[in-house]
């Protein structure tokens, strides 16, 4: 992989990057790029913006790769860089996160549902609840449950342990149950009035 492969849209200068990137960086890029694109696409709402954000993140990582490798947890740092680049792209487009818009309509359950309208309402409630989770719990839920990554893959991409993923997923499930019960209670109250 040459540095031209990492040139995001709108970035004209790749100053500071070597002509040929180190093998460990290329391996890191290959391992993480798809998951980063999935998460950025959920946040940004479209593939093109997600690719721009992820490519910008990898350019930033490549420029400081030696320092990144010296960190205690390079994967966790890189995940944060990617998320910050996604936020930057959203701000540049004067938009907020698109979690509900994007993820709701991608669920296999919705496509196969007997009652798609009821499933859509359920799905909307779920994604509204996911938006209310703490950031780490959102990341775990999106990778693990919405995108179908395994516990091991999720741990690798987030730079946390498998036990950390399982624990975070448990807390997220409990919180989602609470949020969804509250939503169902509010919906029942609305129907009674």
From TrEMBL:
Q: Which GO terms describe its molecular function?
A: DNA binding; sigma factor activity
Boundaries of every RNA polymerase sigma factor 70 region 4 type domain copy:
124-176
Indicate the transmembrane segments per the record: none
Q: Which GO terms describe its biological process?
A: DNA-templated transcription initiation
Please name the InterPro entries in this protein's record: RNA_pol_sigma-70-like, RNA_pol_sigma-70_dom, RNA_pol_sigma70_r2, RNA_pol_sigma70_r4_t2, RNA_pol_sigma_r2, RNA_pol_sigma_r3/r4-like, WH-like_DNA-bd_sf
Q: Which domain of life is it from?
A: Bacteria
Q: Name one Pfam family in it.
A: Sigma70_r2
**Alphabetical UniProt keywords:** DNA-binding, Sigma factor, Transcription, Transcription regulation
Q: Where is the RNA polymerase sigma-70 region domain?
A: 32-95
Q: Indicate yes or no for the key word Protein transport.
A: no
Family membership, please give it.
Answer: Belongs to the sigma-70 factor family. ECF subfamily.
Q: What NCBIfam families does the entry give?
A: sigma70-ECF
Query: Can you name this protein?
Result: ECF subfamily protein RNA polymerase sigma-24 subunit
Which organism does this sequence originate in? Streptomyces sparsogenes DSM 40356
């Amino acid at each position: 992989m040459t540095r031209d492969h990492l040139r995001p849209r709108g970035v004209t200068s790749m100053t500071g990057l070597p002509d040929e990137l180190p093998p460990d960086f290329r391996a890191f890029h290959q391992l993480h790029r798809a998951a980063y694109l999935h998460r950025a696409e959920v946040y940004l709402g479209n593939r093109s913006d997600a690719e721009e954000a992820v490519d910008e993140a990898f350019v930033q990582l490549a420029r400081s790769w030696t320092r990144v490798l010296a960190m205690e947890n390079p994967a966790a740092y890189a995940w944060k860089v990617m998320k910050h680049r996604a936020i930057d792209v959203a701000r540049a487009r004067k938009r907020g996160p698109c979690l509900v818009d994007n993820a709701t309509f991608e669920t296999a359950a919705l496509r196969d549902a007997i009652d798609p309208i009821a499933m859509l309402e359920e799905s909307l409630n779920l994604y509204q609840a996911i938006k209310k989770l703490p950031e780490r719990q959102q990341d775990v839920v999106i990778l693990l449950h919405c995108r179908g990554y395994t516990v091991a893959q999720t741990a690798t991409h987030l730079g946390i342990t498998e036990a950390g993923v399982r624990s975070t997923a448990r807390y997220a499930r409990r919180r989602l149950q609470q949020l969804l019960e509250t939503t169902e209670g509010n919906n029942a109250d609305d129907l009674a009035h």
